[in-house]
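debug: dumping io for the single-chain case to check the tokenizer round-trip. Nothing else runs in this session.
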Amino acid sequence: MGGQQDIALVRSFNRLVTRQVGALNDRYLGRRPLGECRVLFEVGSDGATPRDVRARLGLDSGYVSRMIGSLKRDGLVEERPNPADRRTKRLCLTRAGRSEMRELDRISDELAASALAPLTDEQRARLLRAQAEVRQLLAISMVSIAPEDPSSADARWCLAHYFAELDERFEEGFDPERALPADSKSLIPPSGALLLARSYGHPAGCGALKTLSPGIGEITKIWVDRGHRGLGIGARILDALEEQAAALGHHRVRLDTNRSLDEAKAMYRSRGYAEIAGYNDNPYADHWFEKRLAPG
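debug: decoded output
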């Protein structure tokens, strides 16, 4: 834990940022309360469920419900059937909501430009580098990774979004029934593990490990929610899964991936995975990788 001087510096930085972005005003950017603006942003052009919004903003359900209700009354957001789950509704921006978002984006761009305008080129570059590093470090401090019961609501939320994104990105689409199965028992010790990344206690990503054969584990289902990408969470999940594999007595881990997932292939290679011949019959796998784990 940091000393009192470190804590004071963090608090001073927080006050500066909230003042600079206008978070203390009743109307953020002169439009709406900050919370409602963030909900509009999370719904965005693709839509989202109320649970998606809660998870990505780290807010309790009652508060989010009140903000959604306000946006619906103002005609900015509407509910539609959710094709992925008939039990839930999907939030979508109305025509007025899309217009509001464009205006908020315009004003936000102006605010960001005004912060950069007084600086020299060298100062701007320094500020942008510092902001990138702060964002990365704050993400590390806010995100925890721990084992999760595969049947929990948060685990099912992550896996449902993982499958939906694969269906969106794979050229041939994705059907979970065709993929190699992994029942819940294979994802709990001593057979394997399911890990969830959480930000402010809300799910932000997942990854799974199962045993292929004595001494060999398979890593699968690594996914990070879009709102938390670019922060190194995927690599942290991968590292944590390797630690779980070593704890279960595995000396090697394997994984497969689809040709469409370029960022995943790059991450695996950068972290010591070597491409190998196919070791399974997964119809969606185009590349297979393996890594030897360091002795404990």
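debug: round-trip ok. The longest helix spans residues 95-116.
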